[in-house]
DNA sequence: TATTGTTATACTCTATAACTATA
DNA sequence: TATAGTTATAGAGTATAACAATA
């Protein structure tokens, strides 16, 4: 029942998070991708769609669709950019601000619940271990991305 | 720069895994969902599409599409079920078996690399902590699923 | 000429519902 | 009647490419 390796354990908990979010959003106009947009606007304040595309690492086309849906749901609005008439600024509506305040609180609450489940004597080692694995994984990804950029090894990305 | 809470850390590492898989599959006929099918067949041997639908918790319709793609890619084949003529058995082809053997090896290698990044003195606490959080998260999900089953109970946003 | 955002198009993953063949 | 799988249809997320307006 218990996964054998550390990778299996991490993939299992990732899967549980995914399912949790999917169920929380079922029947609403929200989704993980749309919440990603709201999260950035909540933390950064008004941003252009270009900034959202870069922050989420998705195409501008995709941002247009996500923003359309969130405007329809009345969580955000498009405002004219004060100095660049090509661009728009994405801002939270009052409903959007209320939603994100509640979401941030639930997020913090879940984090606290998870940490409470861990033996206090294990917590420091747990955080060190996760950070060490995150750093290693980031290194491995950067190394793979670098080798993939070499001509002949694959397609380059912007 | 380092995430503040345990939840942020776990979500970050989940995101890194996602990106890693997405990049590994780019330009191939594979994807995370299709690999999920192959993973089950690799570990369970020949299975019906019904079993795949239950194992992956997706619809039978979705399995039909995933299996179609993997048959086209020649990683699996549909064989007649020996006793139930309604059903088919999904089996790995030689190419599928070769792929999954290599994938399992890479999986084990990545797991080993991640664990090597952790201070040996922290490893036991790390595994205990992750398991404790996984158990707690599973409990929370079960509780939410239970309350969501009752009409009118819980926080529903219509 | 470069950038911002939209329209057009397409592919993948996902779901429900109706249908066929078989149990 | 119930089950295994497919066809039909739909919606969300994602991408590239072509385009308009603006810088």
List the chains of the largest interface with their residue counts. A-B, 54 and 55 residues
Oligomerization status of the protein chains = homodimer
Overall geometry of chain A comes to globular
Poorly predicted residue ranges of chain A? 150-158
Termini gap of chain A: 43 Å
The radius of gyration over CA of chain A amounts to: 19 Å
Strand content of chain A: 5-15%
Can you list the strand order of the major beta sheet of chain A? 1-2
Structure write-up:
2 copies of one chain form a homodimer. The first copy, chain A, is mostly helical and 158 residues long. Helix content of chain A is 68%, strand content 6%. The interface between A and B is large, with 54 and 55 residues. Chain A binds a DNA duplex (23 and 23 nucleotides) through residues 31-34, 48-50, 58-66, 69, 81, 84-88.
Characteristic key phrases:
158 residues; homodimer; 6 helices; DNA-binding; 6% strand
What does this entry show, briefly?
The structure is a homodimer of 158-residue chains. Chain A has 158 residues and is mainly alpha-helical.
Task: Give the helix/strand layout.
2 copies of one chain form a homodimer.
Chain A: H1 6-25, H2 32-44, H3 49-56, H4 60-72, E1 76-80, E2 88-92, H5 94-116, H6 120-149
Antiparallel strand pairs in A: 1-2
Helix pairs in contact in A: 3-4
Chain A binds a DNA duplex (23 and 23 nucleotides) through residues 31-34, 48-50, 58-66, 69, 81, 84-88.
């Amino acid at each position: 029942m218990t996964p054998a390796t550390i990778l299996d354990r991490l993939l299992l908990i990732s899967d549980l998070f995914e399912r949790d979010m999917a169920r929380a959003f079922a029947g609403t106009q929200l989704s993980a991708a749309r919440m990603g947009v709201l999260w950035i606007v909540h933390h950064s304040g008004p941003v252009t769609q270009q900034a959202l595309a870069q922050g989420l690492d998705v195409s501008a086309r995709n941002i247009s669709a996500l923003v359309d849906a969130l405007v329809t749901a009345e969580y955000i609005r498009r405002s004219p950019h004060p100095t660049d008439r090509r661009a728009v600024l994405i801002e939270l509506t009052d409903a959007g601000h209320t939603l994100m305040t509640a979401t941030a609180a639930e997020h913090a609450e879940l984090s606290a619940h998870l940490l409470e489940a861990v033996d206090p004597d294990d917590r420091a080692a747990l955080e060190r271990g996760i950070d060490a694995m995150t750093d290693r994984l980031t290194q491995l990804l950067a190394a793979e991305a670098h080798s993939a950029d070499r001509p002949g090894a694959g397609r380059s990305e912007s």
